[in-house]
Write a structure and sequence with these properties.
This protein has about 240 residues and is an all-alpha fold. The protein has one domain. Helices cover about 70% and strands about 0% of the residues. It contains eleven helices and no strands. Helix 1 crosses helix 2, helix 2 packs across helix 5 and helix 9 packs across helix 10. The longest helix is centred in the middle third of the chain and has 29 residues. The protein is globular, with a radius of gyration of 19 Å. About 35% of the residues are buried.
Length: about 240
């Protein structure tokens, strides 16, 4: 973990700050764009800032770690020359670093909103915490599978980046899935990130996500992707140790 951080950001405080400020700036930028385009109209509740924030936080907590974890083996390949280090060690180390980074980004983002008078305290704290950890679990699973697949087959990066974009735009960040036609909802239901957004928003809005949120599907999807990544890593470990 220490080597991964030093390789990415160097040994200075400014490098570490840049890693945190990168996704934080993206989060603040998207939040500002939505607020400017939509004005003060809230699709649900009385605060548009809370609605956009509860949609954007799962995006950062899930897709940001997944994207960076994909390159963990390729970027730290020289470490595989040490017999004690396995490819899975590189992926897990990068994942833990990114998870810690996401927690810092989330905390700072909430403080920024609090400074502007936005109350982000959920009505049900337990659901909010569970939704955050479930989102991180999904991001870790996607990143783990993507790291192994990317090392074995480089075009996987393009495929997964496109899939991440589709997941983001169809996750209900800037619209309410329950207002869509039933035929569209049936398609959106298969997007695991949508369930993360619905779960987090259900902690703020009474009755939100009813009929669409499926926690079992979210955990099953994340576990299946992680399991496939573990199987692929074990089956192709010899190939991954080669340049």
């Amino acid at each position: 973990m220490l080597r991964d951080m030093r390789t990415r950001v160097g040994r200075t405080f400014f490098g570490l700050a840049f890693v945190i400020l990168g996704p934080l700036a993206q989060l603040v930028f998207l939040m500002s764009v939505y607020m400017l385009l939509r004005g003060r109209t809230a699709l649900m509740g009385t605060s548009p800032a809370v609605f956009w924030a509860t949609g954007l936080l799962p995006y950062i907590l899930c897709l940001y770690p997944a994207r960076t974890m994909m390159r963990s083996i390729v970027e730290n390949r020289p470490l595989l020359s040490f017999p004690i280090i396995k490819p899975i060690d590189l992926v897990v180390a990068r994942g833990l670093v990114d998870i810690i980074t996401c927690f810092w980004v989330t905390a700072i983002f909430c403080l920024i909103l609090l400074a502007f008078g936005v109350d982000l305290m959920p009505a049900r704290h337990g659901d909010a915490i569970a939704a955050i950890f479930a989102t991180i679990y999904l991001g870790f699973s996607l990143g783990f599978f993507g790291a192994i697949a990317f090392k074995l087959f480089r075009p996987t990066s393009i495929i997964m980046m496109i899939s991440f974009m589709v997941m983001y735009f169809s996750s209900g960040v800037f619209f309410m899935p329950t207002l869509m036609p039933p035929s569209v909802q049936d398609i959106l239901w298969f997007n695991p990130l949508l369930h993360c957004v619905e779960w987090l928003r259900s902690a703020y809005y009474e009755g939100y996500g009813y009929g669409l949120l499926n926690r079992t599907y979210l955990f099953s999807y994340s576990t299946l992707v992680l399991f496939l990544g573990l199987v692929l890593e074990r089956a192709a470990r010899g190939r991954m140790l080669t340049p």
